[in-house]
């Protein structure tokens, strides 16, 4: 019967433990992975772009930069007449320039599918 060298046995044990660890992480990730990739993309864009002016999530890393109080995404989602389409239209048609007073939301230049993703994310914050 062949005998394993101690170093080979340690390497084999480490490899098996590593595979077990990867399987545990993949299993845990499967539980937390978003079911809707469009919704996840909308949240990602909101955190990267919109969070400069709005509170887009309760666990937002930094507060908005503006001193004026812009509505949070939760507040927008819970307005009685807000729909996913009204949000998409608003974020794709708003523009301001140096002549526009008072200033309104700038054109973010979002691609159409990204505007849909952001509007879907905002509406996901609506309370039942």
Topology:
Blueprint: H1 6-32, H2 37-48, H3 73-77, H4 84-93, H5 112-124
Helix pairs in contact: 2-5, 4-5
Structure write-up:
The chain has helices spanning 6-32, 37-48, 73-77, 84-93, 112-124. The chain is mainly alpha-helical. It folds into two domains: 1-33; 37-124, Cytochrome c-like domain (Cytochrome Bc1 Complex, Chain D, domain 2, Orthogonal Bundle), CATH 1.10.760.10.
Keyphrases for this structure?
128 residues; Cytochrome Bc1 Complex, Chain D, domain 2; 52% helix; single chain; 0% strand; 5 helices; mainly alpha
Indicate the CATH architecture of the largest domain: Orthogonal Bundle
Q: Which strand-content bin applies to the residues?
A: under 5%
Broad shape: globular
User: Are there runs of 5+ residues with pLDDT below 50, and where?
Assistant: 4-31
Mean pLDDT: 77
By CATH reckoning, the class of the largest domain would read: Mainly Alpha
- Counting DSSP H or I runs of 4 or more residues, the number of helices is 5
Helix content: 40-55%
Rg, nearest Å: 23 Å
Largest sheet: none
CATH homology superfamily name of the largest domain = Cytochrome c-like domain
- Domains counted in the coordinates: how many? 2
